[in-house]
Amino acid sequence: MQIDLKGWGVGYVSMFQQHCLLQILNSVSGLREWFAQTDERGAPPRIPVMVNMASASASSKKSQKYHESSHPTSLDQINSASRNSVMMDEYSDEDEEFQIAESEQEAYQKRNENDIKRSALEEEPVPQIDLSCFSGNLGHDDRDNARDCWKISDGNNFRVRSKHFCYDKTKIPAGKHLMDLVAVDWFKDIKRMDHVARRQGCAAQVAAEKGLFSVVINVQVPGSTHYSMVFYFVTRELVPGSLLQRFVDGDDDFRNSRLKLIPSVPKGSWIVRQSVGSTPCLLGKAIDCNYIRGPKYLEIDVDIGSSTVANGVLGLVIGVITTLVVDMAFLVQANTTDELPERLIGAVRVSHLELSSAVVPKLEPDI
């Protein structure tokens, strides 16, 4: 990689060119890591405007000089390409796992089209869990203008792989969650807080006493003061042979290859919304995740500090966190036809969080 200034910067210091080169390489490295972390492996180019421009430029060079054929790209064009990229990211989910034989493709084309539009809301009714016995230190408030609180985010706000995703790459609204979000804790300490489900009286312990199973997701935020936001998802029992049960009882490699996060910032500054985006991300491949399997729970400690990209986005978010409304959906990625359609473990909306509301937890020592 090199830079040719073409006569620009007469009298420049030699270190200037090296500085520019390092900045470009850092940007390329960051982009490469970011794309490696997203759930978009093998996807086709998503900025057709840019592709067409590049093709047109290559053709014009055959008949004209470069300085006659090249024109600066307008800001409107760049913004348009960016919007196209975001829109296509939302619906594309190309993966190498799905290689369907031509005979199966033809058989699928002959199926009734009504099967493709299977509603994610058509679920069998299940007994409701009594949520009154669960509590966390972060308040629960369903009002739209509430502050420093959480509420359950509607599953239909998120799009997941449909029953026929392996054939046509379609996505559908996620619908009902597999588990109930019963409590959220907001902790702080001078050190990183691991295995918070061992804390006496926490929602996971209460659920275990009632014979319920919990998935505890501990999002660890590094800094001079360490923060942890802990989500407690509860269900009556794991369905034997289900994708969720195989995830809970699987090894760490399987878990890392399947745990997916779909983020969204419905309210916040433009730069934060663009930085966070809404593209599904395989958490275990993006950042370090530590899995702790208890008798009646699985805790997932998500170390945000293990990724330079995540740290960069976090640094942008943490300073304006009180102005943000953030949605997060957690699910296990489906990679085969018998695992589809995808279902959310659960989804949460955190509104206008205050750092000052975090408390220091009293964790029991590991046995």
Give the secondary structure arrangement, pairings included.
Blueprint: H1 14-37, H2 48-60, H3 66-69, H4 75-91, H5 102-109, E1 139-140, E2 149-152, E3 159-161, H6 165-168, E4 171-173, E5 180-189, H7 203-209, E6 213-221, E7 226-235, H8 243-249, H9 252-256, E8 259-267, H10 270-276, E9 281-282, H11 283-286, E10 288-293, E11 297-303, H12 308-318, E12 325-332, E13 344-351
Parallel strand pairs: 1-2, 6-11
Antiparallel strand pairs: 2-13, 3-4, 5-7, 6-7, 8-9, 8-12, 10-11, 12-13
Domain Protein ENHANCED DISEASE RESISTANCE 2 C-terminal: 150-354
Protein name: Protein ENHANCED DISEASE RESISTANCE 2 C-terminal domain-containing protein
Region (Disordered): 54-77
Number of helices, counting only DSSP H or I runs of 4 residues or more: 12
Give the CA-based shape.
Answer: globular
| Percentage of residues in helical conformation | 25-40%
**How many strand segments?**
13
Largest sheet: 6 strands, mixed
InterPro entries: EDR2-like, EDR2_C
Domain Protein ENHANCED DISEASE RESISTANCE 2 C-terminal: 150-354
Region (Disordered): 54-77
Protein name: Protein ENHANCED DISEASE RESISTANCE 2 C-terminal domain-containing protein
Quick description:
With 367 residues, this protein is of the alpha+beta class.
Please characterize this protein's 3D structure.
The structure is a single chain. With 367 residues, the protein is α+β, with helices and mostly antiparallel strands. Helices cover 30% and strands 22% of the residues. It is built from twelve helices and 13 strands. It has helices spanning 14-37, 48-60, 66-69, 75-91, 102-109, 165-168, 203-209, 243-249, 252-256, 270-276, 283-286, 308-318; strands at residues 139-140, 149-152, 159-161, 171-173, 180-189, 213-221, 226-235, 259-267, 281-282, 288-293, 297-303, 325-332, 344-351. The protein has a six-stranded mixed β-sheet. It has a five-stranded mixed β-sheet with strand order 5-7-6-11-10. It starts with 13 loop residues before the first helix and ends in a 16-residue tail after the last strand.
